[in-house]
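Re: export button greyed out
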Amino acid sequence: MNIEGVKDKIRTYIVNVIGEQMAKGLTDDSSVIQSRLLDSISTLQLVAFLEEEYGIEINAHEIMDENFDTINKISDFVIRKKNG
Amino acid sequence: MSTLFRHIFPLVPVQSVSNARYIPNKRFFTAGLHLVLCTLAIFLLGIEENKGFDKGVLVLLAGFFLYTVLKPVYRKAFLALIALVFMCVVTHWIIAAGVFLVLMVFVLLTFIRQKNLLYGIAVLMAGAALFLFKGWWGNAYLSIVTGYAAVFLMIRYIYLLYELNYFKTSPPFIDRFNYLFMIPNASFPLFPPVDPKIFINGWYAAPSKESFEQALLWISRGILHTVCYRILYMFLVPSPFEIENFWGLLHFVLASYTLLLRLSGIFYISLGFVMLFGYKFPPTFDHYFFANSFADLWRRVNLFWRDFCVRVFYFPLVTRMKKIPPIQAVFWATIGVFVISWLLHGWQWFWIKGTYVFAWNDFLFWYFLGMAIAIGTVLRMKKKPMREISLASSMVMGSRVVLTFLGMSLLWSMWTAESLGEWLYLLTFAGKATGTDYLIFVLCLVSCMAIAGGINYLYYSKHWFAFVFKNARPITQMVLMLLFVCLALAVKTGWNNNIAEKIVVMQFNQHDRTIMERGYYEQILSNDKQKIEVLNLVSKTQWNLDSKATRKTNNILLREFLPDQVSTFKGDSLTTNAIGIRDRNYVLPKPPGTVRIAVLGGSYEMGSGVADHENYPALLEEKYLPGHTRQKVEILNFGFGGYHLPQAVYVAQHKLEQVQPDYVFYVAHSSERQRMLENFIKITDKKVEITDPALLQIKKASGITPGMSKLEKFNRLRPFSKKLINWGYGAIAQWCRQHGVVPVWIYLPVSARLLTDPDLEFCLETAREFGFETILLNDVYHGYAPVDIQLSSWDAHPNPKGHDIIAHKLFEEISRKRAIFKFLK
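Workaround output, generated via the alternate export path:
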């Protein structure tokens, strides 16, 4: 699985959720959770999207800043989960 | 042994070591100056001084500068020491030592890595703490220590136990301990539930200057919020008793919600001080008055609480409901979170106030808020995000912001009302509005929506506008802090300015002051239980009127002193004489040649918070009159906390004859009519026997019934306030005439700086009409800062110096009226 492809999909998804206006200046290292760009609902929707898109199962305790705060962290997490 | 050492002095990652450096350059010194200014502002403004923070902040300042020069490996242990010293300063070393030991035990328990066992222990300990706190073991020390330990543990222990299961590497003892024993929690019973992972993993994760500057930003913001809160509280929030129409209701509802500033103020200050020591947190509030829906508000207010609920309850709930449609899962999980929030808020208040009482307004607040947010969240899931900001979309957004503010204000006023009945009664004023009122209201609403929409448009479309809002520069904040420091210094060195004093010295507003005085010996405990219990422990005295020294009565006195009692009250001696007044014994019958003055009054006259011979009637008798009189003058103090005109009449009619007074001093205070009404409501609430036909007639004519809210009773009685004053003054004057006694009416303001009193003129005229000699002491406090002459910022009763000033002033006024007070030389 190509990490850049994962990042692209996640980025597109996040921009769709928060809107282009809010996504201005968003980079792969920008905080999306701690900066409150994504709230709990948006995070849950992102989790559902990742589960469906990559066939992985994400547990409640894994939904945290360490795994979900930036596009880089999310894509690393998805790759880790996918690889088992 | 080395394992134990590593748990207390854990290895510091290389990156954190480099981040932990404080380079003594210009930037560091500027930030240091900023910190000193903030500390001075907190100290001089007395922020949270009733919780000892004004003193504790000096420990934090000194501790921080020592902390910066220590090697990083020793800093976490040193932080624990600072927290301990801080707690010793804000409470007492006995309390701090007890809490320290309790927390050590709780931290050790976290090393038992069986999840279920840990939850079991938490529940067990909570149960034991409940048992202790309620005083069922009867040990005051254990009760206080448990109360304080609960402040540290009640929410964060749950959070820590949950998160410990998911740390990559087990955190050392010192991290767990510092997390629980978080500075400056001892001064802030309401403390945001910090995420343990952010706390433990975030220590010097960023360069020290970042967390240092962020800390200063938050502390300054907290101070600013606190000052704004004081201004709103003292000048803009009306008493519910002042509401007479629709506009009064609207004013009350909108102003009440703005008091949320106090919460954000103390959260910013408390978290700012934690961040000083190398920690870094995400924002805890986010422009909450600009929320555009209830769901949006949930994302802006008390975000640490929201994150705690989301992490520990919401995500697990939603992920366990995968079998039902996502929208339903989100809806029910949101409702679940609000039920838990409601229960946990009750849990917190139980610990802080010592009691838990189910209140409908509290339940309904969480119910409506939960439903509004759950529905809003579900609707949001179906909605596409806004693509571009246009003027039209901004107007819609502005309207939503205004309506959310209005809706939340309404909910907030319900939550903070004394009862649901009172709030529902308040709403009846909305029905009394005329068509013109409604039209003006709608026009105002539309104007506010347009302004909010315009601001929203400018914020997102004009960079210069957003820049002004987003970039609060440190220099601006430093100037602001300097301004606060100068203001506080000016007031404390004698600048007489009513507005400045109310900002600098936190006091109760007129409404809360009345509440405090109305039933102060009951209310005071609920207002500051921790402080009082500590004082009780340390001084081994009682802060409430000892039940042994007083008794309930079945008449309109409601309560009275028992004769010949030796007790303590607010840390000072309280002795009653043979006839049951707080005074020395007097010979009965009155010896020939002796002049007697009987003083009728309340807590001010009784000397609430001062020793037996420090109240002003005693000082007048013992300090100022001797050497200036032809005869022996005795002043008998019939004052009792909570007494007002009805009790004064009762005392005159039933207790004065035996002491044969020559003069009766009736002491009236500020807002005499309002106090009179509140006192009358208290009498009718207690269902004691009312024998006076005039009072019975007023009760009947007003139509007050037991089921009514206090506010409704007040408003029904309001038209009778003059009649009640006439009755009371008339009754005292009549008794005096019948017994050949000179009635004297004295006016003594309750606040060190009350510029106007709407009741003064009427009461003065009435007293004169009934033949009272009158003495006005309205400028008695002139030239003194309130903080110097009252018990504390949270108790406006005069301290010994205050009583001395009153006694001296009263002596001067009496000396001017030698024709009346013929006993004077």
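Confidence is low (pLDDT under 50) at residues 515-543 of chain B. The button fix ships in the next patch.
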